[in-house]
Amino acid sequence: MGSVINFVKRNLYILYSLTFTIYIFTIFVPNENIQYLIGVMAILLILISFKGASNLFKVLCLIFSFSGLLFYTYTGLPIIQLPFYMFSNMSLLSLLTVLPLMTSVVHAGRFDRRLNELMKGKVGDLGNLYVRSSITTYLLTGFINISALTLSQEVLQSSLQNIPQKIRKIFISKTTLRALAVALIWSPTEIIVAITVDSTGIGYLSLLPWLLLCSFIVISLDWIIGKRSFRSITVEQDESMNQKINVKKMIIQIIKLVMALAIFLFVVVLTGSMLQLSFILSVSLVIPVFSLCWAISLKRWKSFKVIGWRNWKERTNKLQNFVVLFLSLSLFSSSLSKTSFHDVIKQPFLAFSDNPIMILIFIQVVFLLGGLIGVHAIATIGVLFEVIQPLYGMINPLSIAIVVITSALATATVGAYGVTVTMTSAATQQNPYRITLNNLPFSLLFGAIGISIGYFLL
């Protein structure tokens, strides 16, 4: 029995990818019987993945599953139809499955190594290094998402050994987490952005200029504050971390990345328009083909094949957290929408429909409090969009979308139980609550700027 369990655990990627592939097939060729099969497979995936999920996601899964079953029972629907309510979030899991391919191209093309050289160049003080490391993390995040955090923190840990431990920990947790959060708000591969685009019906290209504006304002303010805070501390680096930066070569690498991102966005939008697909599905379909073509154009096909297979298999085998979260959330959301409780939950939002600024502030508070007590932003957003959709006719959906994205991703710097803060805590040997405390003012500023832009667009 133990050998069977270990075999399944090692080969979860096969079961996951097969299920998600069949799901995408039904998007193009709808079939009720196959959809029912997908629902049954979703239930099976929850049962198989539950043991491998972290305690936080197990709790969230139990809460959403139990509540969803209560709502489903309340509707009086026959239990035989339950599988039809299990796969509404399957597209999100499909996106998470292909994301490692984009990361692998960046690794194969060695863009991550080139950009990390920015942090190894000679700097006079921590103030200058703060800005430089923030820029590096920001650029990497646009392509390799959360992996940028690990790469940047590893370089900073090794290059700042001569800095007092307390200062080093604060410096690393501030510059990397903040740059990551600010870069994620416009990244087309960020799951929060994809969910918001599909849930509000606002086109990604309509959101992009405002998200970039918010990102630019927040990161600029953080650079000013960070440079002033750390400029009094001199950096003594060893020879390996005191390299001369080839500015021309670095600029060329950055231009290549920006051009690749622009082409990727164009293809995503074109695919969605031609095939009439949601933004999430468009990104999911484009990433594999785009990654392959990009690797070939860079003449890094062999490296991509090796790195891509290893990363994809490893990352897909570790999707248990998101599998139990998204599939249980599907049951909860689908069942709730069929009950009268759905209307009751909407009332607090509808009560403030004449005072939209209060609704925008309330959205930020919900995400912030959720992040502080350990509720994942994706879980919050899944419930939130179920109850604020009636407001689209009263409040500009563009404003809601901007506030939801900025508020949700601001929690990446303060969620003591979140992935990003937990990773930083492990890398710096720092209490996660200390990281939360240090970044709380930034998170509030981030959310406030998002609210200001959203209010301006009302």
UniProtKB/TrEMBL annotation:
The chain crosses the membrane at residues 12-28, 34-52, 59-80, 92-111, 176-196, 202-225, 250-271, 277-298, 319-337, 357-385, 397-420, 440-457. It comes from the Bacteria. Keywords: Membrane, Transmembrane, Transmembrane helix. This is Citrate transporter-like domain-containing protein. It comes from Niallia oryzisoli.
